[in-house]
Amino acid sequence: MKENLQKFGILEENVNLETSNTYRIKTSARYVLHPTKIEQIAAFLTYAKETKVPFFLLGNGSNVILSDSMFDGVILKLDQFKKIEYQNQEVTVGAGVMINFLARDIIEHNLSGLEWASGIPGTIGGSIYGNAEAYKISTFEYLKSVTYITKEGNIKTSLKEELTHAYRTSFFKENPGNIILEAVFFFPIGNKEKSLEIIKDRLERRISSQPLEYPSAGSVFRNPSPEMPSGKLIDDLGLKGTRVGDAMVSVKHANFIINLGNATGKDIRSLIQLVHDEVERVYHIDLILEQEYKDW
Ligand SMILES: Cc1cc2nc3c(=O)[nH]c(=O)nc-3n(C[C@H](O)[C@H](O)[C@H](O)COP(=O)(O)OP(=O)(O)OC[C@H]3O[C@@H](n4cnc5c(N)ncnc54)[C@H](O)[C@@H]3O)c2cc1C
Predict the structure, then answer these.
(1) pTM as predicted
(2) 93 with 183: CB under 8 angstroms?
(3) Is a pLDDT exceeding 90 seen at residue 103?
(4) Catalytic residue among 67, 118, 195, 219
(5) What digits encode the pLDDT tens for the residues 40-61?
(6) Which residue, of 36, 61, 136, 177, has the greatest Cβ tally within 10 A?
(7) pLDDT (tens digit, 9 = 90+) per residue, 5-47?
(8) Where are the alpha helices (DSSP H) in 142-264?
């Protein structure tokens, strides 16, 4: 298998995934594959279909809860797809570009519109998939089109209007198996000083309200409604500080679960279940997970 996989990009074997997920779950994978060309992704998909080798697509791992056992398959990472091309207000961005990097890069090109994303440690691919959002602005706001490989291995470009998207979800989340390659955004003309001021304000707000000093994957549950944040429901039940192993409901922000050091994926799952069930028992609200389990 190794010889075949090497044809599809840069291949790593027996890889520790602790730094590939922001929860810092100590897990590993047999292979991590970093394709450098679109053709390699397409060829890998054909190979995986034929040989039934299991694989998972991972962005920056900032919205996932990985399994604890070694993944005996291939983690696909598009971190070689880092193109950023400017044509006036239109910007073409590779799926592997970090959205918080792009937020600052466009400012240098006199554009604005991503200040909200300056504290989000995810890739463009992962952010389109989950329609990442903050301060009521989402990744789809200034999106024009997305180019992706379909499950069948075809390369397709769809306009935003053709792609469903809503609060923390998108066509891609609802139709798993499509791999986002790149996206085109159309950003408003900006004012550098003003944008940097907004970024400073947003980051200060995050530092004061979120437990950024610990590993986490951001908000655990979606908010049932804008008027009913999950964090408040959890806080009102006195669940801050609740622990399973080294996974703990943050005392700073009740919708964050943090890793105190050696939390396993199983600890985090058990704690999520505990919080979910308690909210359901008391409020009869079925909280929906914003993060995703990657089961292997
Ligand atoms: C401290 C902190 C703060 C956060 N704040 C916010 C916030 O304010 N708002 C918010 O919305 N989120 C927030 N998040 C969550 C997270 O950063 C975002 O959801 C981010 O967009 C996920 O991107 P990722 O690359 O890490 O995706 P990953 O976690 O790697 O993957 C998430 C899903 O996307 C899929 N995916 C990844 N790349 C692609 C691709 N190229 N094509 C198709 N599917 C793909 C993966 O297969 C997986 O199913 C926060 C996280 C942290 C740790």
Answers:
(1) 0.97
(2) yes
(3) yes
(4) 219
(5) 999 999 999 999 999 999 999 9
(6) 61
(7) 999 999 999 999 999 999 999 999 999 999 999 999 999 999 9
(8) 171-174, 192-209, 230-236
104 has catalytic annotation: no
Domain ranges of the chain: 2-77, 84-195, 211-294
Q: 217 C-alpha to center of ligand 1: Å?
A: 8
Topology of the domain comprising 2-77: 3.30.43
State whether CATH 3.90.78.10 applies to domain 211-294: yes
Which residues have CB under 6 Å of ligand 1? 22, 57-64, 78, 95, 120-123, 125-127, 129-130, 132-134, 172, 179-180, 212, 216-218, 292
Residue 136, burial from CB neighbour count under 10 angstroms (0-12, 13-18, 19+): exposed
219 is catalytic: yes
Q: Right CATH number for 84-195 from 3.40.50.2300, 3.40.50.410, 3.30.565.10, 3.30.465.10?
A: 3.30.465.10
